Amino acid sequence: MATQDLERVRYVTTNFNYLQGLAMMPVGVIFLAFAAIEVGWLPVPGWGSIVGLGLALVLAWTAHQYYNRTFGRVVSESCIPRNPNWGAIIGVWTLGLGLMIGALLLDTWLNPPVILFGLTTAALTFAYYWPRRSFAAHYLAIAGVIALISLFPLVGGSIDNPVFRPSILSFVIMGLLFVVGGLFDHILLARTLKPIPEANNDQPI
Asked: Is the pTM of this model over 0.70?
């Protein structure tokens, strides 16, 4: 097996739980649906949004079970450290979430000529892509598209148009990130790992 193939297998098995794109995509669809509801393109009662979110979570859980049945479970020490640095992990996620929320608030309060939430999300997506650049080029493309969406008001997209309200574009951007990123993550995983026999579906990878 070529060195590049071995590196791809190592990357996929190490990140197996994070590459389950079919589990991400239902959540992304819900984000896009929320945007359509806010604009008025999708007339859904308030309880419908709650039902839709619940359905998305059920579908995500079902997809996770599908991956475990089809490809097994990752239990290698390289994938699950004995003493993970939870403080660092929580700190990174908290910082990213805080930056996104802060950018969204600035968009709402200052009404700038660009979408700060989108530019922040694009930067964070690029930061996610960089250490995975050998096998996750799709996140570079997603970051670029998000950045272009965020700059669109500068080239004729009216910020007063409801479609370009930060609260709506935040749903669009997150939906794009989850749906497109999830799709290509799934393709990468499915092309790298072979399904295991049904009788051995609890076999660790």
From this structure: yes
